[in-house]
Amino acid sequence: MNYLAIDTSGSHLTVTCRKGEKTACGFVPECNLQHSVILMGEIEKTLSEAGMEAVDADFFACAVGPGSFTGIRIGVSTIKAFAYSFKKPVLAVTSFDTLAYNRCKEEKFIAVIDARHDNYYVCGYDGRELFLKPEFIGREELEKLADVYTLVSSTVLDGFKSETADIKDGFIKAVEAKSDFAVSDREQLVPLYIRKSQAEENT
Amino acid sequence: MKYIAKSADETEKIASIYAKTLKKGDVVLLDGEMGAGKTVFAKGIAAALGICANVTSPTYAYMNDYDGVMYHYDCYRLSSGEDAESLGLTDYFYGNGICVIEWGENIKDALPEKCKRVIIKKTDENTRIIEIPEEDK
Questions:
Q1: How many domains, chain A?
Q2: What is the predicted ipTM?
């Protein structure tokens, strides 16, 4: 399947595409909140490396978070614009998938995204199946999880031992692995919201 | 450190000197009542950072972005950290620019752990005491 996929959900930028057997990938490790400025140029460059035009894509994909608020919205609106104009399906990849899909060890693990102020977004994987749905938790709860499972993250988690995931390869692998889940209802591509439980909100 | 400014010009000048101590990624909270000169202070920081644009209060926009070098916030109309988060205003705290924040107390729970502070007190129409507390090491 041919595709164009982008990850603008963090301080980095990944643009990746495939046409037939040819793949290309552009990766900027640090874009200093300038995704909107450099994204189109990177897309153009990556497409041409794969000898591809946007119209060749069978689906369009992007990272839907958790991550940078504005970055995610830049990604979702860009991918929706492509998908609507070429009438192609869309695929959502979560930031947890990006952390998880590069891992090959056969054990349960927790993908962790730092939400700052001692809060974390977590999601539990057993291979590529979820055993713990995305959740917003505090430090103590993460400590409990860390006692039992390996933590995987893209950043250093202060006070925790964790494996560092390759977010570029992880994103590409997640897009490839999930390609069958692309949907033609383009409105389904939305930022991922993970809310605190009602009890926490009220404290 | 305490300074006394006898005019808006002097406040701006003190801010320009203070700006030399700032590093990329710093978040500065400007404390002071309405009319104390917080925006004037932000102007002085901007000038020292080489920003040529005219710095005005971001009352309606919440935040003005000066080319990613300085982000100037006015949180007067925000009532919680969640407000700031749901407007996408908190991404910039962890970027490579300097964040200068007015009425930061309104979004206390969304601010980074290490913020710098500048306290501006009005003593009479033109005189201000500008206090820059020692930072916790």
A1: 2
A2: 0.77
Same domain, A181 and A85: yes
Q: Which of B71, B96, B113 to mutate to test the interface with A (most CBs of A within 10 A)?
A: B96
Q: Which residue of B has its CA nearest to A68?
A: B91
Whether B24 contacts chain A with CB within 8 A = no
User: Which CATH number applies to B2-131: 3.40.50.300, 3.40.50.2300, 1.20.1250.20, 3.40.50.150?
Assistant: 3.40.50.300
Interface of B with A in 78-107 (CB under 8 A): 85-86, 88, 90-92, 94-97
Query: What's the number of CA atoms in the CB half-sphere (13 Å) around residue A72?
Result: 20
Which positions ≥6 away from B111 have C-beta within 8 Å? B27, B29, B81, B93, B101, B104
Its domain, for residue A49, covers: 3-94+167-188
Q: Where are the domains of chain B?
A: 2-131
Q: 0.95 exceeded by the pTM? A: no
A-chain CB neighbours of B113 within 8 Å are 117
**Per-residue pLDDT of chain B in tens (137 residues, 90 and over written 9):** 999 999 999 999 999 999 999 999 999 999 999 999 999 999 999 999 999 999 999 999 999 999 999 999 999 999 999 999 889 999 999 989 999 999 999 999 999 989 999 999 999 999 999 999 987 65
Q: In angstroms, rounded to a whole number, what is the distance separating the alpha carbons of residues A51 and A22?
A: 8
